[in-house]
Design brief:
DNA-binding, 8 helices, alpha/beta, Arc Repressor Mutant, subunit A, 2 domains, Rossmann fold, 10 strands, seven-stranded mixed β-sheet, homodimer, three-stranded antiparallel β-sheet, 220 residues
Chain lengths: 220, 220
DNA sequence: TAGATTGTTAATCGATTAACAATC
DNA sequence: TAGATTGTTAATCGATTAACAATC
């Protein structure tokens, strides 16, 4: 066990490992090598070994990694050995869709509160959770030990919601709004806006279209 | 204009620039410096200048970047000076939520077809688009010049859908299913699974909880 | 034992940042 | 002109990959 600084790139790969290990576990595969993992996950085996070695010596030379043991360890690393309570702010289409993933959010993550600004949504239920007004956000986050907030409100409201999450002592935010949130450095933010993803994908499309780069302002 | 290889990191920042530039344009701000951009977007100004300089000399020394001109240029770089047709496969909750973003997808990206496997969804409308059976995917993608596919089907079906998109000649895929898709190297895939994001965020939560690392298996 | 595979060091590769001459 | 800001080179920083001794 080192105490180097772990990079974000490493942390982002851990859930990917976990997901595949869970599948192996379901199939009752007892051990797996870094080579096998690398092949399935499109990663370099050396990278996988290095990633895991940051946190401990989980493997056995000549054998590989014990699937159940590695699952247990990664869950510990990701704090998923305890229940992590999550709040969802914004009960529009996207928010409702995400709240349905509660079932998928095994591994101890759970959306336990949903907030919305719209008066006619407040009080209604969504997946057995009663939608609360945003005024109640700070109190509810505090009293329910909510550690992560998912922002699915419109663009212009995102920063205000983030401010309230911060005020309530949130640890991390997953932001689906297309805005750069300003938060204190101890609060982790991940951008999850899919329109940005789509636009960057468009860049790679020219393969099929011959890269026609004629000078439009030639006549000058 | 260089012809170096442009890294994915650079390409992913371009839509972020574009988004903020569009806002400046709306506010009728005529020019912007790399310093201002950097401050608003939490990026190093030198990085912004370098990113843009890969594609051309868009700025003016002593002045900064002309907002409208830079918007035009970034849109060209991202192929958004033409309409990019997008298909959505999987009309569940998440798929429906995303299809509502069509309005947001200014900048010339448009979901033009929606597919689903479920017989009782086929034929119904979603945002004025008739849901088609997945059998029709290959033909529709080809005949409508669809370049990007968004996968919102369940886990186990994702690879099959990806195979069909590839067969139809798709250029890029945005994958919301928690699977590593195997596709030929000329097809670009972005993972957009939010459960993975959430799990990696959980890693950063220990700040508040004192990192209690007691050996559970001491008595041995 | 022989074969396999880890953990880790060293080498490589790539991305970010600093610094500054050029110039508007 | 003086001040501001670009484009770009060089320096730094960080992440990935190769290689291999240790060892199951």
């Amino acid at each position: 066990m080192k105490s180097e600084k772990i990079s974000d790139a490493v942390v982002r790969r851990l859930p990917v490992y976990l997901r595949f290990l869970n599948e192996l576990s379901r199939r009752e595969v007892p051990t797996v090598s870094s080579q096998e993992l690398g092949q399935k996950l499109d990663l370099n085996p050396a990278q996988i070994r290095k990633d895991l070695a940051y946190f401990g010596d989980f493997g056995r030379k000549g054998i590989g990694y014990d699937v159940s043991y590695l699952i247990e360890k990664i869950r510990q690393i990701l704090n998923l050995d305890q229940q992590i309570n999550v709040a969802l702010i914004g009960a529009g289409n996207l928010g409702q869709a995400l709240s349905n993933y509660n079932a998928y959010l095994k591994d101890n993550m759970k959306i336990v509160a949903v907030f919305d600004a719209s008066p006619h949504k407040i009080g209604t239920q969504i997946n057995n959770i009663t939608i609360q007004p945003i005024d109640e956000l700070v109190d509810t986050v505090r009293s329910n030990n909510i550690r992560i907030g998912i922002i699915t409100v419109p663009d212009v409201e995102a920063q205000r919601v983030a401010d309230q999450l911060v005020a309530a002592g949130i640890g991390a935010i997953l932001n689906f709004a297309p805005t750069i949130l300003k938060v204190p450095s101890e609060v982790r933010v991940h951008a999850a806006d899919f329109t940005t993803d789509l636009m960057s994908l468009a860049y790679y499309l020219d393969a099929g279209k011959e890269h026609t780069e004629h000078d439009a302002k030639m006549a000058d």
